[in-house]
Specification:
The complex is a heterodimer of chains A (about 850) and B (about 120). Chain A is an alpha/beta fold. Helices cover about 30% and strands about 20% of the residues of chain A. Chain A folds into six domains: about 5-115 and about 250-310, FAD/NAD(P)-binding domain (3-Layer(bba) Sandwich); about 130-245, 3-Layer(bba) Sandwich (FAD/NAD(P)-binding domain); about 325-465, FAD/NAD-linked reductase, C-terminal dimerisation domain (Enolase-like, domain 1); about 485-545, no CATH class; about 550-620 and about 785-840, Sulfite Reductase Hemoprotein, domain 2 (Alpha-Beta Complex); about 625-775, Sulfite Reductase Hemoprotein, domain 1 (2-Layer Sandwich), CATH 3.30.413.10. Chain A has 23 helices and 39 strands. The interface between A and B is large, with 51 and 54 residues. The complex binds siroheme (SRM), flavin-adenine dinucleotide, iron/sulfur cluster (SF4) and FE2/S2 (inorganic) cluster (FES). FE2/S2 (inorganic) cluster binds next to loops of chain A. Chain A: Pathway: Nitrogen metabolism; nitrate reduction (assimilation). Chain A: Keywords: 2Fe-2S, 4Fe-4S, FAD, Flavoprotein, Heme, Iron, Iron-sulfur, Metal-binding, Nitrate assimilation, Oxidoreductase, Thioether bond.
């Protein structure tokens, strides 16, 4: 080994925690002192293991935590396919499987954990899998394919086991869950809770075997799984087996190197995450902090931060973690928090069970009946948000604690949390911090991570305003004391077609720049009249009023529609020629089309006419309406494309063009999972799969970027269009003014799941109505530019001066830059020259 | 009071209710705005906030100030509201635009080139 000038830090394992360690080391400046080498055994950089199951939907690339494969710091080197086989603490050397030795000054072990495989005969047969890596999932998927319907068994009915069972079920495999304990999720929930869960899962068509011990896995002649032998039970005929019976820390390297390990496994570390060797640290699932191993990612991240801190000379200390969990498994809410099993001395239990609706709730209460210690919720976990912080804050219980778990219809009560109760555990935000923020109109990070605290945060804010006597004003503006959604319903129910009737019947005054465009948008969604029709025109913001975007010097921009970004050379030539003839600045937009800037208002009709004659139309760049549906080249040219993304993008853009909505709408279609169209940053994004299309909704770029979420997968085009029609109309009907789809989703009670219920499962029975509304829109579409140039009455407004139509406004000025015009402004009104003085007194 | 010099700029029916037109009055751009009640007002078209000649293209409405409905036009650029009667900005009282005397005679709008 060549002598090293700078100090060397080696990280073994590039999983979630190893990756976080490196990120933090870079951002906190540890790379000033150390060169970092990360050695990962897997064939790819770290990926989001927590979201592993979504691999089937989104593919490996989407899960990657480091898609580029390199860190943005030349002092960090990542090597994949690099398994460490030995550590020599005395020489400070690690040895790779290839035989190569690497020197280190500090060593961080982040080797994670491996599925626990109980010592049953046959565990080494083909078609027996773990559930931990992308390779595991790829293997499971290929084993589930082909021939008749496959049967699979998941061994282990814990959190992970149920997740694996869910995945098998979704792959179309007939699924058995085999659990040794007498109930499911034995670690998190109790007997009755487990039984309630059983009931839900049984309804979905999975078979649960609790108290069942696997004796052997029997194979056929080709060494493939054939049968599962269970103790005292009938054997199960199965084609594949997934082990998910817990995890074991990967501590073999440490053991062999002579480091201390915990009794129950895991590299033993102290509160500073240092092992028994002063230059070796262990973090994440391979570590046992003071003997305790943590099988969740958040504590691992804390550990990573602490080691970075220590190496920088700090004194960070790991003080334990909240192991409360709330999740939705196979559509069932399950939560467990605090001392869920009532192991505290003298603990009392209070339960509520409703076998009919499959709801089970348990509270664990201290001996004196004063404090909440923990609990379990199955079937309805809405109270989790309030109960978990109660445990953490140790607040005194109300007199009738049973009210905390009774349904509201039976006297369930609301409860006052103490100010110091931690409401958001992800971001450590207390109730006091939330009310303080509400008071001075700022926001906290509460709710921004896992989102499980959002309902509670909202309630605290609302309660705060109610208590201070301020009603939360959800009015549109001073003229309408109602929300946009309420106004929408009022307009629809009464069948109004004119602003005057609406403001006279339901508002005050003559309206303003807030309610008028909002009413215009509602009328447009319902009636699809021309935005410049008499009575409509004065309601529009200037962009809609002139069918272009107002620029800083008072001119407008012109953006013809280029559906899906596909354009012929002839149209490109026309656009270029028009720009030259009218002296316009041209730019390629971020929406895959061309913007012509600097058009004087009086020139707009002539510009549109030229474009319309060449077969183009308005691109609605000015409207709160569909903007573009971006596309990638897709299967027509791209060697990776699996579907015709351009064709679909064009079809969708033409279907939804002109659709007025609460905020602008954008779409994208990518031809494969590489996602070159950035579809997931759109209000609706579609990604091609081999079987069809995955539909993602509620994404956006802008100041608060949000990734679109999967609404439904592997859809045919007909299904896709049906769901999109419903989704868009549902949004248009229920969203607030200027609320984009992602914030609308956050505001919808039940969020994405609720939207899916309405759009895909049609639980409200609104499907037909929403589709019919969209069909009306599609049938009544017309090009606003064309309709304007054909109507002398509408054209009359497009003059610079009513009394001097041929005179350009002298206030509009330009300068030149890079060979084109740019907008300029003047420092006061410009006069065309006159001898009569004018102006204020 | 100085004798006003008036210029006929357009017919009243060329201005939509709660809409505006721009007129060239003594070489300058003037916004002529008609309210729902058919009152007609004239202001300088130049928006001092955005430094652009745009006020006639704004949304016209009312805002309740001390219990009174004040007619205003909101600049289409950054939405500041201007009192149609006085030219005063309702969002920033330090700012005002020039106003012009205006009247309607036999359906024709006349603007005084000098404020009275
Ligand atoms: C022209 C263009 C920039 C460019 O030169 O590329 C542009 C220009 C404007 N954008 Fe944009 N945006 C343009 C693409 C984008 C994109 C990229 C995209 O669509 O892929 C984004 C991020 C994606 C997104 O919207 O989620 C984007 C996010 C915004 C936002 C932030 C929206 C949000 O939800 O946070 C605004 C502000 C708003 O709408 O309230 C905005 C608003 C504007 C306005 C309308 C501001 C205004 O009121 O004057 C700009 C005027 C357009 C004009 O004069 O023609 N623009 N804007 C792009 C036109 C695309 C097109 O062909 O229609
Ligand atoms: C399906 C599933 C669902 C989960 N859901 C949740 C959840 O909802 N919430 C939650 O908090 N946690 C969840 N977890 C747990 C979470 O994924 C782990 O806590 C987290 O990944 C631990 O990170 P880590 O870096 O310690 O280990 P890992 O992510 O496992 O990374 C360890 C890496 O080290 C590598 N490695 C091991 N030995 C060597 C060696 N000798 N040389 C080189 N490289 C080596 C491994 O190949 C691996 O890539 C889930 C896990 C799974 C599998
Ligand atoms: S998303 Fe896929 S199909 Fe589309 S261009 Fe990229 S690689 Fe090709
Ligand atoms: S608890 Fe996860 S975001 Fe608040």
């Amino acid at each position: 080994m060549a002598p090293q000038l700078r100090k060397q830090l080696v990280v073994v394992g590039h999983g979630m925690v190893g990756h976080r360690f490196v990120e933090s080391a870079i951002s906190r400046g540890l790379t000033e002192a150390y060169d970092i080498t990360v050695l990962g055994a897997e064939p790819r950089p770290a990926y989001d293991r927590v979201a592993l199951t979504s691999f089937f939907e989104v593919g490996a690339e989407a899960l990657s935590l480091l898609p580029s494969g390199t860190y943005d710091d030349p002092r960090v080197r990542l090597r994949t396919h690099a398994e460490v086989v030995a550590v020599s603490p005395r020489q400070r050397i690690v040895t790779l499987a290839s035989g190569e030795d690497l020197h280190y000054d500090e060593l961080v072990l982040a080797t994670g954990a491996a599925p626990f495989v109980p010592p049953v005969p046959g565990a080494d047969l083909a078609n027996v899998f773990g559930y931990r890596t992308i390779e595991d999932l790829e293997a499971i998927r290929s084993a589930s394919k082909g021939g008749r319907r496959k049967v699979g068994a998941v061994i282990g009915g814990g959190l992970l086991g149920l997740e694996a069972a869910n995945a098998l079920h979704q792959l179309g495999v007939e699924t058995h869950v085999v659990e040794l304990a007498p109930r499911l999720m034995a670690v998190q929930i109790d007997d009755l809770g487990g039984r309630t869960l059983n009931q839900h899962i049984g309804k979905l068509g999975l078979t649960v075997h609790t108290g069942a011990m696997t004796e052997a896995i029997l194979g056929d002649r080709r060494n493939r799984v054939e049968r599962l032998a269970l103790k005292d039970r009938n054997p199960l005929d199965v084609d594949l087996v997934v082990f998910s019976a817990g995890i074991r820390p990967r501590d073999a390297l440490a053991r062999a190197a002579g480091l201390d390990v915990a009794d129950r496994g895991g590299v033993l570390v102290d509160g500073s995450l240092r092992t028994s060797d002063e230059h070796i640290w262990a973090i994440g699932e391979c570590a046992a902090v003071q003997g305790v191993m943590y099988g969740l990612v958040a504590p691992g991240y804390d550990m990573a931060e602490i080691v970075v801190d220590r190496l920088l000379g700090g004194a960070g200390e790991f003080t334990g973690a909240d192991m409360s969990t709330k999740l939705k498994l196979l559509g069932v809410d399950v939560a467990s928090f605090g001392d869920a099993h009532g192991t505290t001395k003298g603990a009392l239990e209070l339960t509520y069970a409703d076998a009919l609706s499959g709801v089970y709730k348990k509270l664990v209460i201290s001996e004196d009946g004063k404090r909440l210690l923990g609990g379990v919720l199955v079937g309805d976990a809405a109270a989790y948000g309030v109960l978990r912080p109660m445990v953490a804050s140790g607040m005194e219980l109300p007199e009738n604690p049973e009210e905390l778990i009774l349904p509201a219809s039976r006297g369930g009560a609301n409860l006052e949390l103490p100010d110091d109760a931690q409401v958001c555990s992800c971001n450590d935000v207390t109730k006091a911090e939330i009310t303080a923020a509400a008071a001075d109109g700022t926001i906290t990070r509460a709710g921004a991570t896992c989102g499980s605290c959002k309902t509670l945060v909202k309630k605290i804010v609302e309660d705060y305003f109610a208590a201070t006597g301020k009603e939360i004003d959800r009015s549109l503006c001073e003229h309408f004391r109602m929300t946009r959604q309420e106004l929408f319903d009022v307009v629809a129910v009464h069948g109004y077609t004119r602003f005057d009737d609406i403001v006279e019947g339901h508002g005050t005054g003559r309206g303003c720049d807030i309610c008028k465009p909002a009413v215009a948008s509602i009328l447009a969604s319902l009636l699809n009249q021309h935005v410049l029709a008499p009575g409509n025109r004065q309601l529009q913001d200037t962009n809609d009023a002139y069918l272009g975007n107002l620029q800083k010097n008072g001119t407008y921009s012109v953006v013809p529609r280029v559906p899906g970004g596909e354009i012929t050379p002839d149209k490109l030539i026309v656009i270029g020629q028009v720009a030259k003839d009218f002296g316009l600045y041209t730019k390629i937009t971020g929406g895959q089309r061309i913007d012509l800037f600097g058009a004087r208002m009086e020139d707009l009709p002539a510009i549109w006419k030229r474009l319309v004659e060449a077969g183009m139309e308005s691109g609605h760049a000015y409207g709160k309406s569909l903007r573009t549906v971006k596309s990638c080249v897709g299967s027509t040219w791209c060697r990776y494309g699996v579907q015709d993304s351009v064709g679909l993008a064009i079809e969708l853009e033409l279907r939804y063009r002109g659709l007025r909505s609460p905020h602008k709408l954008k779409g994208g279609v990518s031809g494969c999972a590489r996602e070159c169209a950035e579809a997931r940053s759109k209000d609706f994004g579609i990604i091609a799969t081999e079987k069809g299309w995955n539909l993602y909704v509620c994404g956006n770029g802008g100041a608060m970027p949000a990734h679109a979420q999967l609404l439904a997968g592997d859809l045919s085009k007909e299904e896709l269009v049906r769901y999109l029609d419903r989704f868009l109309m549902y949004y248009i009907r229920t969203a607030d003014r200027l609320q984009r789809t992602s914030s609308w989703m956050d505001a919808v009670d039940g969020g994405l799941d609720r939207i899916r219920e309405v759009v895909v499962d049609d639980v409200l029975g609104l499907g037909d109505q929403l589709e019919a509304a969209m069909a009306r829109h599609v049938d009544s579409y017309f090009d606003e530019w064309k309709a304007t140039i054909e109507d002398p009455e509408k054209l009359a407004r497009f003059v610079s001066f009513v009394n001097a139509p041929g005179t350009p406004d002298p206030n509009i000025t330009f300068r030149e830059e890079r060979g084109q015009v740019q907008a300029a402004t003047t420092d006061g009104p410009v006069s065309l020259g006159t001898t009569i003085p004018v102006g204020a007194p | 009071m100085t004798a006003a010099v008036r210029e006929a700029v357009c017919r009243l029916d060329q201005i939509e209710r709660e809409g505006g037109v721009t007129a060239l009055v003594a070489g300058e751009a003037v916004a002529i705005i008609r309210t729902h009640e058919d009152h007609v007002y004239a202001l300088s078209n130049y928006d001092p906030f955005s430094k652009a000649s745009v006020l006639a293209r704004g949304i016209v409405g009312t805002r309740s100030v001390d219990g009174e409905d004040v007619p205003f036009v909101a600049s289409p650029m950054f939405k500041q509201a201007f009192d149609l009667r006085t030219g005063e900005c309702l969002d920033d009282r330090a700012v005002a635009v020039a106003t012009y005397d205006v009247r309607v005679v036999d359906g024709v709008v006349e603007v005084a080139t000098r404020t009275p």
